[in-house]
Specification:
230 residues; mainly alpha; Helicase, Ruva Protein, domain 3; 3-stranded antiparallel sheet; 7% strand
């Protein structure tokens, strides 16, 4: 409990953070005011990221990482998706993994780091966010052979980014079998809206980058290209 909420006698009420990832996701879904669709896999990444921060020795745990952090992170990701929709003309904004990059710079001020970590805050946040992304992708895509996707994208890179519409991402995806299962696992099946499929495909591509099976090139025009790691 933060100091201003303690009564004059210094009384405190012991409590705890959500015990399971599913509980954290449910709390985010219940409390966050989202201005765009945020797929479940992105909420799981945010939940895992928040929990990793609570376990990090680089973060001052006496101040803690409150439930409001995860809620604000989800709202930030949704706002990034809404901004892209305004720029690209998408009719229904849907958050994608690329939108997670907006979380560390926006929410760094909500955290207190331990002495000696000055100047390394961004490094810690980016590392834990990548870890949360990889853990979520592994859990949700376990058992899918992504080799055909690696081979196809190595031949024909896929471009995405903050200013790239979902329809462009989907149009650039190769016609390989794993993508259908990826879409089914991540809630993108059965809809003509390209947003959910673009979000699902981005998560798979980011996993392949984080496991060094694909390369990822960022440019100055806010675009990202996944391609051959060779």
């Amino acid at each position: 409990m933060i100091t201003p909420l303690k009564d004059p006698f210094g009384a405190e009420i012991p409590t705890h953070y959500p015990l399971e990832v599913a509980d954290e996701i449910a709390m985010i879904r219940q409390e966050a005011r989202l201005v765009a669709d945020v797929p479940e896999h992105l909420l799981e990444i945010i939940a895992r990221f928040t929990r990793a921060l609570r376990e990090s020795s680089a973060v001052d745990q006496t101040s803690g990482v409150s439930a409001r952090f995860a809620i604000a992170a989800a709202e930030t990701v949704a706002a990034a998706a809404l901004r892209r929709a305004a720029v690209t003309g998408e009719s229904r904004p849907t958050a994608r993994p690329i939108d997670l990059e907006s979380v560390p710079p926006v929410l760094r001020g909500k955290l207190e780091f331990t002495p000696g970590e000055e100047g390394r805050e961004d490094e810690h946040l980016e590392h834990l966010l990548r870890r949360a992304t990889a853990d979520t992708a592994r859990a949700r895509l376990r058992g899918i052979d992504l080799t055909p996707l690696v081979e196809a994208v190595s031949r024909a890179p896929v471009r995405t980014g903050e200013r790239v519409a979902a329809a462009e991402v989907v149009a650039a995806l190769p016609a390989v079998e794993p993508l259908a299962e990826i879409g089914r696992r991540l809630g993108a099946a059965g809809t003509e809206d390209p947003g959910p499929m673009a979000s699902a495909a981005e998560l798979a591509l980011e996993l392949l980058f984080l496991t060094r099976r694909l390369a990822k090139e960022e440019t100055d025009d806010e675009t990202v290209s996944y391609g051959s790691a060779a």
